[in-house]
From TrEMBL:
Recorded name of the encoding gene: LOC120270971
Family note: Belongs to the peptidase S8 family.
Domain Inhibitor I9 span(s) in chain numbering: 31-111
An example Gene Ontology molecular-function term: serine-type endopeptidase activity
The protein's name in its UniProt record: Subtilisin-like protease 4
Subtilisin-like protease fibronectin type-III domain span: 641-739
Keyword set includes Protease: yes
Residue ranges annotated for the Peptidase S8/S53 domain, each copy included: 134-573
Keywords of the record: Glycoprotein, Hydrolase, Protease, Serine protease, Signal
GO biological process, one term: proteolysis
Length: 742
């Protein structure tokens, strides 16, 4: 009897809580992106006309607090606006004529790794031909802002921005120059200046298009002349991320502005989990930009190596994963038994002891926080004078863990990868002597430390080394395909350097950073070494800018095809880099991309046919297309049929499938290509015709790929890899083939 009463009470309480929550949501305003039709009977789409059209959807102009309901009135990327509304108000709006769709604002996160350090860009990996340094083109960086006075953004020798440029500089006008031609901030209507308070935006902008700076270095390491990938290119800064969070309404406002201003390439280094495209403001804005001929590059995410973690998965984006380079800033770990293991750190202290020091392992009996040397977890331990073993887990970045160790009295830190982080180590700008080691090396260190009563260790700093193998390899953190929502197109598209990237930073790093915290209003000559797919997107933004200078008439899809079909699939030792879900078409090869021979182009309406093929309703397709679409009047195409430079097909047992592709000749006017196929295990593949004979430039020819599977059996649910190559005496045009068995 008692029990029953209690249960009833619980039940009532539960209902009451529910009641309270729903009464709160009644007056709870959230920001929505509202897509509407273009106003009818309005002659010019001047912004005032648009604004009054948008206002007509709102119950009131302002909230009771006096705050404006409209946050953004978009003009170019979409017909629609962002506004503060309750759920009920959105419901009421749905009945108004001209309404199409409303989506709640999403928060997107920067793609530096959650373990937030950075690494270095090797000049040798990027095309920097004298004639193609990016002159006259504009890269729009949607990020955390910029430190404008950094030497990487000097404009010596650069021409004025092209006349099409219509952008604005929110800093004092004298702060912008011919390198940094514009800078705006978007934060829900707040008027802050586009200064970079965390470093991410300064770093990514200088990777894409920073100028040459001699004697760049991080704490004496990785010394040399640095520059961005397209050092003569102009930069337009759109600050849409504040601390590490980017609201989708702000991002869409940034894209809207960048399109209006006249940028040629947009780079995005943030994302959220995959969602359907009609609820993905970034995908919608990016399609608008691509239709205008603007290339949009984006980071793949840092949630690897788990499969199905890819972000920014739409076929009109160039989705970029992170690779390692052949440079290492080596910090060797020498155990008391003389065993040596290889680690990395960008901070090489002068005069660090060559003698052995005692090891302490807070994770031995401690919590997961102590194991990770998280903030506050070491204060009660006596670690004075000791070398502390920390796992590379938990919320704090590797540099922050070092701060925690140093504050608790530790003299050095050995940072040990978790199993899924495997071999990817980082040369971060630590505040104390440190070495970051792989999972395997970490296991040996732990085994030694746990087996001895008085384990000891020392760290030997070797400086910057080049020619390290394997390189390139895929970073463990780089997000993997397939997309959890939008399957059918292989993602990522390509990989580019994203581990240990050296580039501009707004403030000193290393031990000095403890004394002078980030102050982005001060001119500084600082650099930092950071890792994340965040840094791979601006590499590709730079490369595609160079390609666009060389080939001004190529569409964004043609340029994507050029970088994908010429990508490297073997590392420098001639071994396969990785699988397709981690590397897509392979590692960027800018020189080859400049002369691909053939390109797979995609014309505008193909994306609409693809959206219809996803099974979206007309309304949902219309939201993404930003115009009224009736799928019944279009021939929908399956994702497999999109004229993509990679091939991804799903097959059941004893199934057959034929897909078609077409290529355009951009090499020699007369050229003959023959097909080569590496057939994925478990399927037969044939191509018809087997030869493509071109007689002029821009000529297009199509071909069919015919697949047939046997009994799928144990391969069901798995995938199999191969490739298709069109080979002439000058060119190899390679497309990866992924077959998934259903
Ligand atoms: C460690 O992470 C916590 C939680 O994110 C943060 O509050 C703290 O400032 C970080 N510690 C350091 C030393 O930065
Ligand atoms: C870790 O890296 C090694 C060497 O590259 C590789 O053989 C192994 O498969 C990787 N392990 C995981 C879990 O990725
Ligand atoms: C940064 O420097 C400026 C100029 O010297 C100064 O006015 C400002 O207070 C500083 N900000 C911080 C957070 O130290
Ligand atoms: C190829 O097409 C582009 C874009 O349409 C055009 O600019 C170029 O002149 C064409 N080349 C030839 C040889 O027809």
């Amino acid at each position: 009897m008692k029990l029953l009463v209690i249960l009833l009470l619980f039940h009532t309480t539960f209902l009451m809580i529910n009641g309270q929550i729903s009464s709160i949501t009644n007056t709870h305003h959230e920001t929505y992106i509202v897509h509407v039709q273009k106003p009818k009977n309005v002659k010019s789409l001047r912004s005032t006309d648009l604004l009054s059209w948008y206002m007509s959807f709102l119950p009131t102009k302002t909230l009771a607090s006096g705050e404006s309901r409209i946050v953004y009135a978009y003009q170019t990327a979409i017909t629609g606006f962002a506004a503060r509304l309750t759920k009920e108000e959105v419901k009421a709006m749905e009945t108004k004529e001209g309404f199409i769709h409303a989506t709640k604002e999403r928060m997107l996160y920067l793609h530096t790794t959650h373990i937030n350090d950075f690494l270095g860009l090797n000049q040798g990996t990027c095309l920097q031909r004298d004639t193609y340094l990016g002159k006259g083109l504009i890269i729009g960086m949607l990020d955390t802002g910029v430190l404008p006075n950094h030497p990487s953004f000097k404009d010596s020798g650069l021409p004025h921005p092209p006349t099409k440029w219509k952008g604005h500089c929110d800093f004092k006008p004298t702060t912008c120059n011919n390198k940094l031609i514009g800078a705006r901030s978007f934060q829900r209507g707040n008027k802050d200046l586009p200064y970079d308070a965390i470093g991410h935006g300064t770093h990514t902008a200088s990777i894409a298009a920073g100028g040459f700076v001699k004697d760049a270095q991080v704490l004496g390491n990785a010394k040399g002349t640095v520059s961005g990938v397209a050092p003569n290119c102009h930069l337009a800064i759109y600050k849409v991320c504040h601390s590490s969070v980017c609201g989708s309404t702000d991002v869409l406002a940034g894209i809207d502005q960048a399109m209006d201003d006249g940028v040629d390439v947009i780079s995005l280094s943030f994302g959220g989990g995959a969602v359907p495209f009609y609820d993905d403001a970034v995908a919608i804005g990016a399609l608008a930009a691509v239709e205008k001929g603007i290339i949009v590059t984006s980071s793949a995410g840092n949630s690897g190596p788990t499969k199905g973690t890819i972000e920014n998965d739409s076929p009109w984006l160039i989705t970029v994963g992170a690779s390692t380079m052949d440079r290492m800033i080596r910090a060797r770990v020498k155990l008391g038994n003389n065993e040596e293991l290889i680690g990395e750190s960008a901070y090489h202290p002068s005069g660090f002891t060559s003698g052995f020091l005692p090891i302490v392992y807070p994770g031995r009996h401690g919590s997961s926080r102590a194991k990770a040397c998280s903030d506050g977890s070491l204060s009660r331990l006596n670690i004075k004078g000791m070398v502390v073993l920390c796992h590379n887990s938990g919320a704090n970045t590797t540099v922050e863990k070092g701060i925690v160790v140093k504050k608790a009295g530790g003299v050095a830190m050995i940072l040990i990868n978790e199993e899924d982080q495997n071999m990817t180590t980082r040369a971060a700008a630590h505040v104390l002597p440190a070495a970051h080691v792989s999972y395997f090396d970490g296991r040996r260190i732990l085994a030694y430390a746990l087996s001895k009563t008085n384990p000891t260790v020392t760290i030997i700093f070797d400086g910057t080394l080049y020619g390290i193998s394997p390189a390139p390899s895929v970073a463990s953190f780089s997000s993997r395909g397939p997309s959890s929502i939008n399957e059918g197109v292989l993602k990522p598209d390509i990989i580019a350097p994203g581990v240990n990237i050296l580039a501009a930073w707004p403030s000193p790093v290393g031990p000095l950073s403890l004394e002078s915290p980030m102050n982005s209003t001060i001119t500084s000559m600082a650099f930092n070494i950071v890792s994340g797919t965040s840094l791979s997107s601006p590499v590709i933004a730079g490369v595609t800018t160079l390609l666009k200078i060389a080939h001004p008439d190529w569409s964004p899809a043609a340029i994507k095809s050029a970088i994908m079909t010429t990508a490297d699939t073997l590392d420098r030792d001639g071994l396969p880099i990785s699988d397709l879900y981690s590397m897509g078409a392979g590692h960027i090869n800018p020189t080859n991309a400049n002369d691909p021979g053939l390109v797979y182009d995609i014309v505008e309406d193909d994306y609409i046919a693809y959206l219809c093929g996803l099974g979206y309703t007309d309304k949902q397709v219309s939201v993404v297309a930003r115009r009224i679409i009736e799928c019944a009047s279009i021939d929908p195409i399956n994702a497999e049929e999109l004229n993509y430079p990679s091939v991804s097909v799903a097959l059941g047992s004893k199934a057959e499938k034929t897909i078609t592709r077409w290529v355009m000749n951009v090499g020699e006017s007369e050229s003959l290509y023959s097909v080569q196929i590496k057939r994925p295990e478990g399927v037969e593949v044939s191509v018809y015709p087997e030869k493509l004979s071109f007689s002029k430039m821009n000529q297009t020819l199509s071909f069919s790929l015919y697949f047939s599977s046997g009994d799928v059996g144990a391969m069901r649910g798995g995938a199999s890899e191969g490739y298709l190559r069109w080979v002439s005496n000058k060119h190899i045009v390679r497309s990866p083939i992924l077959v998934t068995f259903t």
